C-alpha cells in the first residue's frame, strides 16, 4: 500500500474557492447570516459526533453507517436551506446550475459504486453461509464441497471491483470542481455557495474513506485543507486528523482487509480452512467445533453490518436525487418569470 497523502496539504486546484464564495467586503442581511450560521453550526456539531470514541472503530460497519447517515443529514440540510432561502433566484448564471447537476450525477454514480461493492460482499457472505451449512454434514463429500465454497470466497475477496475504480475517478473530478462559478449579485446565492462548499468538503472526505475501506489501499485519501474560516473548520480538521491517523496505523500494520467485520471473517475462514482439507475425524475435534462456531458468529455480524450499510447508502442515493428534484422544481417555477428560457430549463429535466 502506498503512503497516505499529507492531510495538511492544501487542495486548491484553481485558487481559493472560499474567497470566491464570500468576497472581501461582502455583507449579508441578519436573516441570511442567521441561516448560514445555523447551517454551519449544525455541520460542525455533526462532524464532532462522527469522531469515533475508539479510533479502531473507523472501519467498522457501525462507524460507516454513522458516516453515511451524516452525509444524508448534511445533504438534507442543503435541501432545507434552499427552501429557507425562498428560492428560486431566477437570474443565477446557468453555469452554476450545470455544475450542481453535474456534481450530483457524480454523487449518484459514487453511491451506485458503493452499492455494487456491498452487493458483491453480500454474495461473499452467502458463500460463507453455504460453507457453514455444508460443514454441518461432516462427511467427506460435505467437506469437499465446503472447501470449494471457501475457494470461491477467497477468489471473490481478492477480486477488484471496477465500479469502485470509477468512484475514484468521480471523486477526483469532484475535487477539481471545488471552485464554484461566480455568483451574480445575489446574497442568497452566496450563502448557498458557502453552505455547499461545506457539504462538498464533507462528502469528499467520507467518500474517499469509503473507497479506502473497500479497496484496502490508501493512495486515494486526499488531505483537504479548509479555506477561509467557516464555523465547522475546527471540527473538520480534528476529525480528519483523527481518522487519517488511525488509517496510517492500520496500513502500517500490514492489514490486507481494512473492514473490521470482513477481516474478522477472513481470519476465521483461514483458521478453519486447513481442517476442512483433513479427514472426517478432524471435523469431530474440539478445535474444529470451536472454529466452526466462531466463524458462524463472525459471518452473522458481517451479514448484519452489510444490511445496515446497504440501507444507508440507498438512502443517501435517494436524498441526492431529492436535492436535484428540489433545484429542478425551483427552476421550473422560475421559468414563469422568464418565459424565453423555458426550453433551456426544461432540458434539465432529462439529465
Describe the main β-sheet briefly.
none
Order of helices and strands: HHHHHHHHHHH
Detail the poorly predicted runs: 1-21, 339-351
Rg of Cα set: 24 Å
Instruction: Please state roughly what percent of the residues sit in beta strands, choosing from under 5%, 5-15%, 15-25%, 25-35%, 35-45% or over 45%.
Output: under 5%
The helix fraction, in percent, is: over 70%
The number of domains is 1
Taken from the alpha-carbon principal axes, the silhouette is elongated
Judged by helices, strands and strand pairing, the structural class is: mainly alpha
Number of strands: 0
The total count of helices amounts to: 11
* Distance between the first and last residues' Cα: 38 Å
Mean pLDDT: 82
Characterize this entry briefly:
This protein has helices at 17-21, 30-50, 61-84, 94-135, 140-158, 162-176, 187-215, 233-252, 260-276, 286-334, 342-346. With 351 residues, the protein is an all-alpha fold. Helix 3 runs parallel beside helix 10.
Characterise the protein shown here.
This protein is mostly helical. It has one domain (17-321). Helices cover 70% and strands 0% of the residues. It has 11 helices and no strands. Helix 4 (94-135) runs antiparallel to helix 6 and helix 6 runs antiparallel to helix 7. The radius of gyration is 24 Å and the shape is elongated. The two termini are 38 Å apart. 34% of the residues are buried.
List its traits.
351 residues, mainly alpha, 11 helices, elongated, disordered N terminus, disordered C terminus
Amino acid at each position: 500500500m502506498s503512503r497516505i497523502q499529507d492531510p495538511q496539504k492544501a487542495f486548491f486546484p484553481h485558487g481559493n474557492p472560499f474567497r470566491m464564495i464570500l468576497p472581501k467586503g461582502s455583507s449579508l442581511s441578519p436573516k441570511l447570516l442567521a441561516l448560514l450560521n445555523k447551517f454551519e453550526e449544525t455541520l460542525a456539531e455533526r462532524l464532532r459526533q462522527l469522531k469515533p470514541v475508539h479510533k479502531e472503530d473507523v472501519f467498522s460497519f457501525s462507524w460507516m453507517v454513522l458516516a453515511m447517515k451524516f452525509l444524508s443529514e448534511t445533504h438534507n440540510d442543503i435541501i432545507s436551506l434552499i427552501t429557507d432561502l425562498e428560492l428560486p433566484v431566477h437570474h443565477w448564471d446557468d453555469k452554476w446550475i450545470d455544475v450542481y447537476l453535474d456534481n450530483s450525477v457524480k454523487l449518484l454514480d459514487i453511491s451506485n459504486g458503493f452499492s455494487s461493492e456491498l452487493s458483491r460482499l453480500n454474495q461473499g457472505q452467502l458463500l460463507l453461509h453455504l460453507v457453514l451449512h455444508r460443514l454441518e454434514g461432516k462427511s467427506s463429500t460435505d467437506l469437499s464441497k465446503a472447501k470449494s465454497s471457501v475457494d470461491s470466497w477467497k477468489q471473490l475477496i481478492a477480486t477488484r471491483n471496477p465500479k469502485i475504480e470509477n468512484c475514484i475517478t468521480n471523486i477526483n473530478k469532484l475535487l477539481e470542481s471545488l471552485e464554484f462559478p461566480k455568483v451574480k449579485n445575489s446574497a442568497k446565492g452566496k450563502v448557498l455557495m458557502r453552505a455547499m462548499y461545506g457539504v462538498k468538503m464533507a462528502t469528499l472526505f467520507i467518500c474517499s474513506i469509503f473507497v479506502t475501506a473497500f479497496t484496502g489501499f490508501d493512495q486515494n485519501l486526499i488531505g483537504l485543507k479548509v479555506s477561509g474560516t467557516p464555523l465547522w473548520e475546527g471540527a473538520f480538521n480534528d476529525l480528519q486528523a483523527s481518522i487519517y491517523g488511525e488509517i496510517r496505523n492500520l496500513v502500517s500494520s500490514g492489514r490486507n482487509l481494512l473492514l473490521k467485520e470482513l477481516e474478522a471473517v477472513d481470519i476465521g475462514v483461514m483458521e478453519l480452512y486447513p481442517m476442512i482439507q483433513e479427514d472426517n475425524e478432524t471435523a469431530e475435534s474440539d478445535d474444529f467445533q470451536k472454529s466452526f462456531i466462531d466463524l458462524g458468529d463472525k459471518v452473522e455480524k458481517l451479514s448484519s453490518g452489510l444490511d445496515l450499510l446497504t440501507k444507508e447508502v440507498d438512502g443517501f442515493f435517494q436524498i441526492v436525487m431529492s436535492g436535484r428534484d428540489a433545484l429542478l422544481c425551483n427552476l421550473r417555477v422560475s421559468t414563469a418569470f422568464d418565459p424565453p428560457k423555458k426550453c433551456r430549463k426544461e432540458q434539465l429535466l432529462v439529465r
